[in-house]
Backbone:
C-alpha cells in the first residue's frame, strides 16, 4: 500500500552517514542522491531523507517509521549499527508479544529524533531468542 516514506533531517550529510550504517543490516543502501534528498532501498528508493529547516523532532511527536527485517539477527544488527552511527536506543531488540501477533523489534532515534523501528515476525521461540 505504501510506496515510500520520507523523514525530515536538519543536516543531510550527517543523516546520510547515520542511515548508510543503520540501514545496511536491513539490506538497504543509498540509491539516489540529490541536493536536498537522499533515497535508500533495494532496487528503488523506498526510504528518503530530506533536508528541512526544522528543529529536532520532539519526543512523543508521533514520528515513527517501521522497516521490515528478514531475521532477528538483522534487527539486532540494525540496532547496534544505529547506536554506533550516533543514534539513541528507544527500545532494545526483543520479542514483543501482543494480542494478535508476536514480533521481534528494536527502536532507535536518529540524530534528528525520528523514531525508526526494525521488525521481524519469528515463526518459533528458537528464532526469537536474543542473539
Residues:
Amino acid at each position: 500500500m505504501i510506496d515510500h516514506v520520507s523523514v525530515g533531517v536538519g543536516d543531510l550529510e550527517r543523516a546520510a552517514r547515520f542511515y548508510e550504517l543503520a540501514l545496511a543490516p536491513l539490506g538497504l543502501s543509498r540509491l539516489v542522491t540529490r541536493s536536498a534528498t537522499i533515497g535508500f532501498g533495494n532496487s528503488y528508493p523506498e526510504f528518503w531523507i530530506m533536508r528541512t529547516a526544522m528543529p529536532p523532532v520532539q519526543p512523543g511527536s508521533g514520528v515513527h517509521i517501521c522497516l521490515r527485517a528478514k531475521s532477528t539477527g538483522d534487527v539486532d544488527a540494525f540496532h547496534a549499527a544505529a547506536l554506533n552511527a550516533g543514534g539513541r536506543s528507544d527500545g532494545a531488540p526483543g520479542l514483543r508479544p501482543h494480542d494478535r501477533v508476536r514480533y521481534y523489534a528494536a527502536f532507535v532515534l536518529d540524530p534528528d529524533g525520528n523514531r525508526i523501528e526494525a521488525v521481524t515476525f519469528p515463526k518459533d521461540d528458537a528464532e526469537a531468542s536474543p542473539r
